[in-house]
Amino acid sequence: MSLDTHQLAALAAVLRLGSFDAAAAALRVTPSAVSQRIKALEERIGTTLVHRAQPCTGTPLGKRLAKHAEDVALLEANALAGLTDRQAAAPRVSLAVPADSLATWLIPALALVGDMCFDLVLDDQDTSDDWLRRGEVSAAVTGHARAAPGCDVHALGHLRYVATASPAFMERHFDGIFSLPALAQAPMLVFNPKDRLQHRWAEARGAARFHPPIHHLPSSHGFVDAALCGLGWGMNPLSLVQEHLRRGSLVTLVPDAPLDVPLYWQVTRALAPALKRLTTAVRKTAQDRLNLRA
């Protein structure tokens, strides 16, 4: 079954932007034309592809077809690269990345590419490769060396974390000296229910059946601010807190006890040639910025 490229482009635009009007503006056609293209595609496929709500969302098949449309546009842009008279929209690339990577080193890598538009989804490094397995992204920064099916994997280095808190927090909850009984009672910062970094660090210190009070705080920079304000202790990327540690506004719970988290770049093999420049930029930036030591 051959599918109309204009219809697929309309589907991808509606799901990316959330409305028929926004998709029409992006495609420089009327909302009626977008609606007709989506309706014709649904009739050809024989099923609903778009949930018409505010915002519009895709059915599972609609999402897969929209991702297919973006992949085709990416491959086409790569094939036609270098044609001076070509005036096409920049291809879009969907990526799954951990929030801490986005906050510390990844954005400069994306900026090096220049002629791609990125759709980023945030997920923990331990589960970001699930997006690759579902076919919803083209590449991901993950914490796993084992490649997802159909993907190539490249080691990037380690993102160093340190367990940090404010001096006042340490005085209030630890009497200034780290201990496991105090750790079990001290409020802890957790990014989301998937975040196990604090537990991994605590278990490495000897904590067992570890269930302290928890603040859920899904923000990398919010983690740092919460630690500065004494809300709780948490694992912060060293690059985000190094200056605070030097000034003494944050301290480590245990000196010289970092947690180094390995990171990998996984890219869909079929798209790897079209994403070669992105892969090169990610690997080069990671080489320059990861493995930062105090």
What does this entry look like structurally?
- With 294 residues, the protein is α/β, with parallel strands linked by helices.
- It folds into 2 domains: 5-79, Winged helix-like DNA-binding domain superfamily/Winged helix DNA-binding domain (Arc Repressor Mutant, subunit A, Orthogonal Bundle), CATH 1.10.10.10; 90-294, D-Maltodextrin-Binding Protein, domain 2.
- Helix content is 45%, strand content 19%.
- It is built from 12 helices and 11 strands.
- The protein has helices at residues 5-17, 20-27, 31-45, 60-79, 99-113, 129-133, 167-174, 180-185, 197-204, 220-228, 238-247, 276-289, and strands spanning 50-51, 57-58, 92-97, 117-122, 139-142, 151-165, 188-190, 214-216, 234-237, 251-252, 259-268.
- The strands form 3 sheets. Strands 3, 4, 5, 6, 9, 10 and 11 form a 7-stranded mixed β-sheet that branches. A two-stranded antiparallel ribbon has the order 1-2.
- Helix 1 crosses helix 2, helix 1 crosses helix 3 and helix 2 (20-27) crosses helix 3 (31-45).
- The longest helix is centred in the N-terminal third of the chain and has 20 residues, at 60-79.
- It is elongated, with a radius of gyration of 23 Å.
- It starts with a helix and ends in a 5-residue tail after the last helix.
- The mean pLDDT is 92.
